[in-house]
Amino acid sequence: MPSGLISPSLLRRFADIVGGANALTRADDQAPYLREWRDRYIGKTPVVLRPGTTDEVSRIVALANAHAIGVVPQGGNTGLVGGQIPSQTGDQIVLSLARMKKVRDVDSAGGTMIVEAGVTLLEAQNAAEGVGRLFPLSLASEGSAMIGGVLATNAGGTGVLAYGNARHLALGLEAVLADGRIWNGLRRLKKDNTGYDLRDLLVGSEGTLGVITAAALKLFPIPAERETAIVAVESPAAALKLFRLAEAEAGPALTGFEIWAHRAQEFALRYMKGMRDPFVDAYPWYVLIELSHVSPRSPAVRELESLLTVAHAQDLVQDAAIARSLQQGQDFWRLRDSFSEAQKGAGGSIKHDISVPIAQIPVFLERAATIVERVSPGARPVPFGHFGDGNLHYNISQPEGGDREAFLALWEPMSEAIFELVSDLGGSISAEHGIGQMKREALRLHKSPVELDMMRAIKTALDPKGILNPGKLL
Question: Residue 428, SS3?
Answer without folding.
Answer: strand
